[in-house]
């Protein structure tokens, strides 16, 4: 076999390998088992899990696990086709009806991942001749979706409705205009300024899409960012994922019936990909019912995040403020971030190391509804130990 330029490019890529050899590689950690609040890493180490998006603790809930097992027994392991042809189950239809009802939207469309929900919604709706205006910190899937659509793309400054309004005013664009934001930004946990965004879109006849991957199931007893601002009826398009608060995998687009009907026949990420598995779909449906019946979970995760924020701030860490389960800890630079990340694991605590270009260096810490106070205190104690041992870590004098 001849070795072509593309294969040579891969062979000369050593960054990942070098970092692994230096013991400074924070990606693809492997877990051998998981249960509420804790996980066992491959190799045996038990860690308190402060780095998952399982905000309500439903991924290991016995009722959700049983629903997945029952669906597998009834329908099989996979649907082996797209919803368009042979892969549509009554489970997908039921989940759509219950999602629409819970989130207060006329219709829902279930796709196989949240990533695909964004691809399907943006590239299904927009094409050449349209304009997508996108927040500079919007999720990668929204950026990919905008590129895939072949619409013109313009960026506006993060969470800056004045910049958006200026751009909408100056565009002179004649085609459709889609404004794309995250409801909750995943790296900092900040919310989009929804009231001002809605106002600007209304003034300039633009359509607003809110990716509520991190707000759905969490804010306002689970009804998400739009409901948190009392603006559910003012946001025409919302996308969701089941890989966070719903503890499963899958995604959805919520909107008017005619938009969902249009996407059923134009969203290529839906039409040309196999449907979410019976287990994933049943798990998401069971989670939705549980979160509806158990609003205490939203209060519990908010309480845990407030506790962790307070305790880490008292240790001198610079911690992002906010009302979401995402507790970003500013770590200064890359070596300090990786040093702290490794030491935290040694101390039995797992968090996510985030490095540029994804965002400025930080430990993205996150809470769930099922973490116990004892588990959170173990995490705080580990952060206290790390504070003393990592040179260059951004910490103030302990408060
Ligand atoms: N949007 C946002 C804001 C996300 O954080 C993610 C997942 N990281 C996605 C979309 C994609 O969701 P999924 O994991 O279901 O593909």
Automatic annotation (TrEMBL):
Give the record's family classification. Belongs to the class-II pyridoxal-phosphate-dependent aminotransferase family.
Q: Which reaction does it catalyse?
A: 6-carboxyhexanoyl-[ACP] + L-alanine + H(+) = (8S)-8-amino-7-oxononanoate + holo-[ACP] + CO2
Q: Where is the Aminotransferase class I/classII large domain?
A: 48-383
Q: Which organism is it from?
A: Streptomyces fumanus
Q: Which residues form a coiled coil?
A: none
Please tell me whether the keyword Ligase is annotated for this protein. Answer: yes
Query: Which Gene3D superfamilies does the record cross-reference, listed alphabetically?
Result: Aspartate Aminotransferase, domain 1, Type I PLP-dependent aspartate aminotransferase-like (Major domain)
Enumerate the UniProt keywords alphabetically: Ligase, Pyridoxal phosphate, Transferase
The EC number(s) this enzyme carries: 2.3.1.47
SUPFAM superfamilies associated with the record: PLP-dependent transferases
Protein name according to UniProt: 8-amino-7-oxononanoate synthase
Which cofactors? Answer: pyridoxal 5'-phosphate
Molecular function per GO:
8-amino-7-oxononanoate synthase activity; ligase activity; pyridoxal phosphate binding
Give the highest taxon in the source lineage: Bacteria
């Amino acid at each position: 076999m001849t070795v072509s330029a593309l294969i040579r490019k891969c062979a000369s890529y050593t960054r990942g390998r070098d970092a692994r050899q230096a013991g400074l590689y924070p990606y693809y950690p492997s877990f051998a088992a998981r249960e509420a609040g804790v996980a066992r890493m491959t190799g045996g180490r038990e860690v308190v899990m402060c780095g998952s998006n399982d905000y309500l603790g439903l991924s290991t809930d016995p009722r959700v696990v049983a629903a997945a097992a029952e669906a597998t027994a009834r329908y099989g392991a996979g649907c082996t086709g797209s919803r368009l042809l042979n892969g549509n189950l009554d489970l997908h239809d039921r989940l759509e009806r219950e999602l629409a009802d819970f989130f207060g939207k006329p219709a829902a469309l279930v796709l196989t991942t949240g990533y695909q929900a964004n691809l399907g919604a943006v590239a299904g709706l927009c094409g050449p001749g349209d304009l997508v205006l996108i927040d500079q910190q919007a999720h990668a899937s929204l950026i990919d979706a905008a590129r895939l659509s072949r619409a013109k793309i313009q960026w506006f400054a993060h969470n800056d409705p004045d910049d958006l309004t200026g751009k909408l005013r100056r565009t002179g664009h004649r085609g459709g205009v889609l404004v794309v934001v995250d409801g909750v930004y995943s790296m900092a946990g900040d919310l989009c300024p929804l009231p001002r965004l809605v106002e600007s879109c209304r003034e300039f006849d633009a359509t607003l899409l809110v990716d509520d991957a991190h707000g759905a199931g969490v804010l306002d007893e689970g009804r998400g960012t739009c409901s948190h601002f009392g603006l559910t009826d003012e946001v025409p398009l919302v996308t969701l994922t089941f890989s966070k608060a719903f503890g499963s995998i899958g995604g959805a687009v919520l909107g008017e019936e005619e938009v969902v009907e249009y996407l059923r026949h134009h969203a290529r990420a839906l039409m040309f990909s196999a449907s979410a598995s019976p287990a994933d779909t049943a798990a998401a449906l069971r989670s939705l019912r549980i979160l509806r019946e158990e609003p205490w979970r939203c209060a519990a995760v908010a309480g845990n995040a407030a506790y962790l924020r307070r305790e880490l701030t008292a240790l001198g860490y610079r911690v992002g403020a906010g009302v979401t389960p995402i507790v970003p800890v500013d770590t200064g630079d890359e070596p300090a971030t990786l040093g702290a990340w490794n030491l935290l694991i040694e101390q039995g605590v797992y968090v996510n190391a985030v490095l540029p270009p994804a965002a400025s260096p930080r430990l993205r810490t996150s809470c769930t509804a099922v973490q116990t106070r004892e588990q959170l205190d173990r995490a705080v104690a580990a952060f206290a130990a790390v504070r003393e041992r990592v040179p260059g870590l951004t910490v103030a004098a302990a408060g």
